[in-house]
Structure to design on (252 residues):
């Protein structure tokens, strides 16, 4: 390879249907892209060829290898013949191009006149990046909505606290650990022992013990995003005991 020349990866794809209907061969794409890349001053690093593959998603052998090599910064640009050769999923296309932007890899589509060397090409990249951010925000909102709904319906969100076991997404009492938890609540409430001494006695940190004593899961609640709902699991300790312990913690 020639020193100081930027390296380009070429990705070409053709489905069986494309080739039958349009004579849209891999060789034709390859020749056009090699000529274009060299005209722009790139040296060819590797040609990635997916033959007879659909573009409905990115789960194609050469595409996956291309993205792994891109993340490893093995080249500086990716050349494709047309956007639909890369992906027919707008979401996959937008999010993938956004990842390439993070890796400082240029993306050039010959037929669509998309590239990142010129001002107009950089503007297009920024627009695509804005769409990617929008898509991520939508996914995040949907995920949060789903988790909030699960919490409201009594579903448990995170891992099981001490005294419970999470089995088939159900929070079940572990009797051995449950007795230890009840003992901690009762000893803290009914003796003069400090949080620090009680924590040390039970091989816990003071912060860890305080977190345990304040955990409303033990009275049948679930919490997500600062909101508390009734859970579907069995409470481990009586509400009255829990509230008395909260009062003593607040006094301390």
């Amino acid at each position: 390879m020639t020193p100081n020349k930027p390296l380009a990866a070429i990705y070409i794809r053709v489905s069986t249907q494309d080739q039958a209907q349009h004579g849209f061969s891999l060789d034709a794409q390859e020749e056009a892209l090699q000529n274009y890349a060299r005209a722009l001053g790139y040296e060819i690093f590797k040609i990635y060829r997916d033959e007879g593959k659909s573009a409905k998603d990115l789960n194609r052998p050469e595409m996956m290898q291309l993205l792994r090599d891109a993340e490893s910064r093995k080249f500086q640009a990716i050349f494709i013949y047309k956007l639909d050769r890369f992906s027919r999923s707008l979401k996959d296309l937008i999010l993938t191009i956004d990842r390439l932007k993070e890796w400082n890899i240029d993306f050039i589509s010959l037929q669509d006149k998309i590239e990142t060397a010129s001002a107009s090409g950089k503007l297009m990249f920024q627009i695509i990046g804005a769409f990617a951010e929008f898509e991520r925000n939508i996914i995040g909102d949907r995920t949060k909505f789903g988790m909030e709904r699960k919490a409201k319906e009594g579903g448990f969100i995170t891992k099981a606290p001490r005294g419970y076991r999470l089995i088939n997404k159900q929070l079940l009492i572990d009797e051995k650990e449950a007795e230890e938890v009840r003992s901690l609540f009762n000893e803290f409430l009914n003796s003069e022992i400090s949080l620090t001494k009680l924590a040390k006695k039970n091989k816990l940190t003071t912060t860890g013990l305080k977190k345990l004593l304040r955990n409303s899961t033990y009275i049948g609640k679930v919490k997500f995003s600062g909101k508390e709902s009734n859970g579907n699991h069995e409470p481990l300790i009586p509400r009255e005991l829990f509230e008395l312990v909260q009062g003593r913690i607040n006094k301390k």
